[in-house]
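Pasting two entries for a bug report.
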Amino acid sequence: QLQLVESGGGLVQPGGSLRLSCAASGFTLDNYVIGWFRQVPGKEREGLSCISKRGDSTNYADSVKGRFTISRDNAKNTVYLQMNSLKPEDSAVYYCARRLSFFSQCALSPTAFTTWGQGTQVTVSS
C-alpha cells in the first residue's frame, strides 16, 4: 500500500520547537519531490516548504522562512520538517505530500501534489 505517514506533532509552548517526520511506505521516497503543508479549519491548505528529490534544492513560504527547515534522509525513506520559534498561529494540521515522479521542480501549491498523508496536529499554546 502506497502511503505517507506524518508523525511528531503535539502541543508545544510559543517559542518552542518540534520536528515532524514524513515516512513513506510502499515506495521509494527519493523518486519524488516532497512538500509540507498545513491547514486550519475553514481555511485553505497552505504550502510551507518543499524539497527536491536529492535534497539539493528547497523552497519556503514567507510565513516560515528562517524558522522551519526541510530535510530528507533517503536512506531512511523519510522527510523532516524542523520547526523552531513556533507561534500560536502555526497551530494547524500538518501534511506531507509527493508530486508525480515525472516532476523534479519544487512547488508550494497544493494542487501540484497528488499523494497525501493523513496529517499530524500541531498546537502552539501556553
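Entry 2 (this is the one that rendered wrong in the viewer):
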Amino acid sequence: QVQLVEAGGGLVQAGESLRLSCVASGRTFNNYAMGWFRQSPGKEREFVAALSWNGGNTYYVDSVKGRFTISRDNAKNTVYLQMNSLKPEDTAVYYCAAPPGSGPSYSGRNENLMHYWGKGTQVTVSS
C-alpha cells in the first residue's frame, strides 16, 4: 500500500523557519514529480511547490518564491519543503502529493493530476 506521510509542521512566529518532510512507502518515487499543496480554513487547496521527476526543475507559487525550497532525498524516498521567513498567511495544512505515474508527463503542479496524497501537517505562523 502506497503511503505519503508528512511531518515537521508546528507553531512558529513570523520570520522563523520550518522544514516539512514527506516520506513515501510502498513504492519508490525517485522518478516521480512531487508536489506540495496547502489549504487554509475557508480557502481552496492551492499549489505551493513542485519538483520535476528528475529533480531538474522546481516550481513555486509566486507568494513563496525566494522563501521556500523543495528538494528530495532519493535514498530516503523523501521530499522536503524548507520554509524560511514564514508569514502568518502561510498558515495552512500542507500536503505532499505524487502523480499516478513516473517520468516527465507530470510536473507535480496540477493537483487534479495528482494521485497519491498524504494526510497533511499543520503549519501555524503567529504574528
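Dev reply: Rendering is fixed now. As a check, the viewer should reflect this: Residues 63 and 115 are 25 Å apart (CA to CA).
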